[in-house]
Structures are given as structure tokens and as C-alpha cells.
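Continuing the batch. This is chain 6 of the set; chains 1 through 5 are on the previous pages. Same settings as before, nothing changed between runs. Recording input and output for traceability.
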Amino acid sequence: MISIIITSYKEPNTIGKAVESIIKNNIKDYEILITAPDEETLSIARKYSQKNKKIKLIKDSGKGKPAALNLVVPKAKGDILVLTDGDVYVGENSLKPLLKYFENKNVGAVSGNPVSLNSKKNMLGFWAYLLTNVANKRRKNADKLNKRFFCSGYLFAIRKNLFPKLPEELLSEDGFISNEVYEKNFKLAYSENSKVFVKYPSLFKDWILQKKRSAGGYNQIKKLKGVEIRSFKKESLGVFGLFEYISNFREFLWFLLLIFSRIYLWFLIYRDITLKQKSSKEIWKRIESTK
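Output for chain 6:
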């Protein structure tokens, strides 16, 4: 059996599409576990569970995604877990190629491919296009070379027996899980055809909040596990590889602004996480423009 876990928080407007997209993938033996702390989301999800007995609802404590996963994973019946969120939706025929990788017993986890729903015709939309394409390229290269990389929390699958107990203060649970799988000598695989469609921030303040949480999470994992996947230095060395995605002068200007914004972002991460040592509750903020 495949257990598909959807973690959600105050997403009544998107949870339905997330569920429907999974059902349309026509997986034979599956269950869908939807976890959320709020009644708005659960009430919408309940309409689906009343029609489909394979859908189960679990109310979590509202302490964050790591705590929700710690609660739900032991209740899952499947040997393979597919993790996704209530504010994204998977593409048609995305789950079968994701799951096929587990025919190889050496594969412990498989990442899907996040695709931006934002328009490329504005600055933040272009940034989303640029960064998702870069992530796609990096995961493909790491997969070919059998190197460590971080699966995308928007869509990835893992063998249940490899799922670790998550510290509740984690900012990047997907990075932590990926690292744990790799450290157990299992392969991380990348399924480029397993697309998950994501709405990225349309406001700069929300962009900062989101990236501060994700990039800050990598910094946190470095402290916990001594593993450095991303850093200001690594980003700086890879900046020239981004030029292939620029097609006009306007996009070049947006690219320059992205560089300065990333410098500002890493300053905030150093200030708030390294110096002030803010908790995950202080850093994790709901990003409204992605809903």
C-alpha cells in the first residue's frame, strides 16, 4: 500500500484541488491521510472523506509540519510514504514514475519536480522560474552522480522504515529527512517527470519569509548534522550558471536584483538564526500570497 500524506494549515481554498489531483493519478492501492490543525481545512477535506473511504483525516496540534508528520507517519499503513502539501497539486501521471524508483531496493527516497505557477512576466515570477529551473538541474546532476541532495517537500516519497523522528524546531524537514536517508547509505533519486505545481510568493516580504525559512533550514541542518548543502559561498560560486535562463534586458535587471536580495537574505539568516538564535516559531510565518 502507498500512504499519501497531505500536511495542511488554513488551506480550505486549495486542499480540494490537492486531493483531487492525487485521486486522478489512479494509484491502485493507496490511502490519503490529511492532517491539519484548523477546522476550516478539515471541514472541506471531510467532504472528500465522506465520499472516499481511502481518505482519512487527522487533526494535529498546530505545532508545525514536523510535529504533524511525527503524529501521522506511525498511523500510515503503507510501506511507501508520499509527502505533499495542501496548497500545491501534483500533475497527472506524476505519482507512478515517482513510485517506480522503489523497485530498486537501494533507493530510499525520491524527489518530485516543483514547477512554478507564477507568471514569468513579473520580477518575482521570473525569480520563481529561475530558481525552480536551477533546482531541477542541480537535482538531475546530483542524481546522476549519486550525490547528496535535498528532496522537495512539495512532493517526495520515502520508505516508511527510513522515516526519522523529526525535531519539532526544524525549519526544513525535507532537508533533514533527505540527509537521514543518505546517511543510512540509501540512494536519493530524482523523478523529473513527477511534477508538482506550486504558487510562489507574489510579494517581496513573503518571498523573504519563505526563503528565510528554507535557506535558514539548511543552516540549521548544518548545525545539527554538520552537513552543508547550501551556503552564501556556494550560491556565490554558482551565480554565473544562471545566465542561461536570461532572455532579455529586463530579465537581466531582475537577475541583478535577485543577487542583491539573496545577499540581504543571507544577512537576515546570519542575524536571526546564528546571532539571535531565534526559534522556529519566531521564523516560521504563514505566507498568504502563496495560497
